[in-house]
From TrEMBL:
InterPro entries, A to Z: AMP-binding_CS, AMP-dep_synth/lig_dom, ANL_N_sf
Organism field: Hibiscus syriacus (Rose of Sharon)
Comp. bias regions, Basic and acidic residues: 10-19
This protein's name: Long chain acyl-CoA synthetase 1
Entry superkingdom: Eukaryota
Cofactor(s) required for function per UniProt: Mg(2+)
Pathway: Lipid metabolism; fatty acid metabolism
Length: 638
């Protein structure tokens, strides 16, 4: 009988809580770190050494690619080599120093992913300047806060974002010494900035300044701040997550060690399509790894609705961001033969690698899926909200590439757990601990989660060498987040028998209803979200009410199918007002009132973050009148 594969090492036993402290589960590490963390290369201890060493090894390799838009048409990818990028980075760094930037100074970068974004970032690394990304999807309110809170003196900005910085509502802009546009500024914007006392530069003007005023590199130390990444937050002001050079460099080294365990090696010919915001740690660390390996990164041309065109033009070997991949695959579901799907899945379940499980099924059906993703894709990574088991299984069988889930936060510098390719036991889970951190679960008594129970469940706590050092200027929140040396993520995990973690709930979204019953809102949203007619759902309750209500975004295609079967001919908005459909949705066990919505929760109305996490406070404000009316109607029926 085959013994079960174990994917993490238990290095410390759990223990019962004492003196009011919660119980904690065993401590787990990656198998590669069972006897302690692997030694780090002292010559690869900062992001600058990672980049500069790659320039020495791969000077002629393609590094950064972009598409020019001429007369409204998007052209082919154009590339800069590692040496060309390096030379430009030196000029940008010299220009920053010549403009008054001193080591330790904070430099903002505001705009969509592009080569200039990366060159500004690397220039910061060359001169011990802290790079502060500004979400290109955030409005002037958050940008105003971050510029003031981080005390940003210089900012690089995309041309279409300049007006937001010069908006009167963005009062903190007035503290800026210089503004560098990724391209060039209009005469109007130049004049407006000048009135505010801000020196402006086009990208080429700034390069020229650097060429004329060369400065010596001031290479960072491992403990220097590399970046302050502000998390968008679901409520309140953004939090500044401080990541040092050593933290990011260690993360990249850990990915190197992990990837080296597998048969399919990364090569300099690998290509990553970057469209997830560089203001997120996930995209930033992926790109750092690609640069470390001398591989290529191509940037989307700025329109997510036309991402498919970028995929077909670039033909990437690596994509991160499952939701966009699913949008490409959805129309192909009808082409997939059920028998072929089941046949290939059965062989994968027996331990066969995806490429050997059924070449016939790949040839007859699934090569069409591969073609939709550019034809060269080797790895598809999900690093946001955990995928459902059904979706992950579907992708593993049909995409003809490795599909891996990971889990992490800005505070963990990217993934703190990572799955294994071609291991079907990882379906629905987020993997085992990454190489340079360890993990344990902590008891959450109010929610009934016990790390010493069967199965072990509790709040996911992480510590190690890839954890952030502090929340910038917020020692109180830093202390709250670190207890006994462990960072508390707020996510609820379940440890499977083979040492693999599954995310099942969220601690912070626990509320107590008026009758004293605790309810986990995200758990309910995940349960109700699998209903075919539901595209998205937000569950609301408060401590003064005994009932939960919800806003349900209808799945347009499935809602219209229901309407056809029920004899209704109406638009989606009209269906939302049908009492019969509203009554049908109240079949939810715990939710007593439902408001139907035709429009998805979006960033335009500030209802979700850039990573599509629900902003619960904003949702409440937006739907307050409807919710109050719904509660009144429910009370009248009691």
């Amino acid at each position: 009988m085959e013994t079960m594969k174990v994917f993490s090492a238990k290095v410390e036993d759990g223990r019962e809580g004492q003196d009011g402290k919660p119980s904690v589960g065993p401590v787990y590490r990656n198998l590669l770190a069972k006897q302690g963390y692997p030694p780090l290369d002292p010559d690869m201890s900062t992001t600058w050494t990672l980049f500069s060493s790659s320039v020495e090894k791969y000077p002629g390799n393609r590094m950064l690619g972009w598409r020019k838009i001429i007369d409204g048409k998007v052209g082919p990818y154009i590339w800069k080599t590692y040496k060309e990028v390096y030379d430009e980075v030196l000029h940008v760094g010299s220009a920053l120093r010549a403009s008054g930037a001193e080591p330790g100074c904070r430099v903002g970068i505001y705009g969509a992913n592009c080569p200039q974004w990366i060159m500004a970032m690397e220039a910061c690394g060359a001169h011990r300047l802290a790079c502060v990304p500004l979400y290109d999807t955030l409005g002037p309110g958050a940008v105003n806060y971050i510029i003031d809170h981080a005390e940003i003196d210089f900012v690089f900005v995309q041309d279409i974002k300049v007006k937001e910085l010069l908006n009167p509502n963005c009062r903190s802009t007035q503290r800026l010494k210089a503004m560098v546009c990724f391209t060039s500024l209009t005469e109007e914007d130049n004049a407006k900035a000048s009135q505010m006392g801000i020196k402006t530069y086009s990208w080429n003007e700034f390069l020229r300044t650097g060429k004329e005023n060369p400065q010596e590199i001031s290479a960072p130390q491992p403990f220097d701040i590399c970046t302050i990444m502000y998390t968008s937050g679901t409520s309140g002001d953004p939090k500044g997550v401080v990541l040092t050079h050593e933290t990011i460099a260690t993360f990249v080294n850990g990915v190197d060690i992990f990837m080296d365990q597998f048969e399919d090696k990364m090569t300099v010919d690998d290509v990553y399509l970057s469209f997830l915001p560089l203001a997120h740690s996930l995209d930033r660390t992926i790109e750092e790894y690609f640069f470390h390996r001398g591989a290529s990164v191509g940037y989307y041309h700025g329109n997510l609705k036309e991402l498919r065109d970028d995929i077909m033009e670039l033909k990437p070997t690596f994509l991160a961001g499952i939701q966009k991949a699913l949008q490409e695959l959805n129309p192909l579901r009808k082409w997939i033969f059920d028998a072929l799907y089941k046949h290939k899945l059965s062989w994968m379940d027996r331990g066969y690698k995806h490429k050997y499980a059924s070449p016939l099924a790949d040839l007859l059906a699934f090569r069409k899926v591969k073609a939709k993703l550019g034809g060269r894709l080797r790895l598809l990574l999900s690093g946001g909200a955990p995928l459902s088991s059904e979706v992950e299984e579907f992708l593993r069988v049909t995409s003809c590439c490795f599909v891996v889930q990971g889990y992490g936060l800005t505070e963990t510098c990217g993934a703190c757990t990572i799955g294994f390719p071609d291991e079907m036991c990882f379906v629905g889970a987020v993997g085992s601990p990454a190489v340079y951190n360890e993990l344990r679960l902590e008891e959450v008594p109010d929610m009934g989660y016990d790390p010493l129970g069967n199965p072990p469940c509790g709040e996911v706590c992480v510590r190690g060498k890839t954890i952030f050092s502090e929340y910038y200027k917020n020692p109180e929140l830093t202390r709250e987040s670190f207890k006994d040396g462990w960072f508390h993520t707020g996510d609820i995990g379940q440890m499977l028998p083979n040492g693999v973690v599954k995310i099942i709930d969220r601690k912070k979204n626990l509320i107590k209803l008026s009758q004293g019953e605790y309810v986990a809102l995200e758990h309910l949203e995940n349960v109700y979200g699998v209903t075919p007619i539901v595209d998205d759902v937000w569950v609301y309750g408060n401590s003064f009410k005994s009932m939960l209500v919800s806003i349900v975004v209808l799945h347009e295609e499935n809602a219209k199918k229901w309407a056809d079967l029920s004899g209704y001919t109406a638009s989606l908005s009209e269906l939302c007002s049908l009492s019969k459909l509203q009554y049908h949705m109240r079949g939810f066990e715990y939710i007593k009132g439902v408001i139907l919505e035709a429009q998805p929760f979006d960033m335009e109305r500030d209802l979700v973050t850039a990573t599509l996490k629900k902003k619960r406070n904003n949702l409440l404000k937006y739907y307050q009148a409807e919710i109050d009316a719904l509660y009144r109607n429910l009370a009248a029926k009691i």
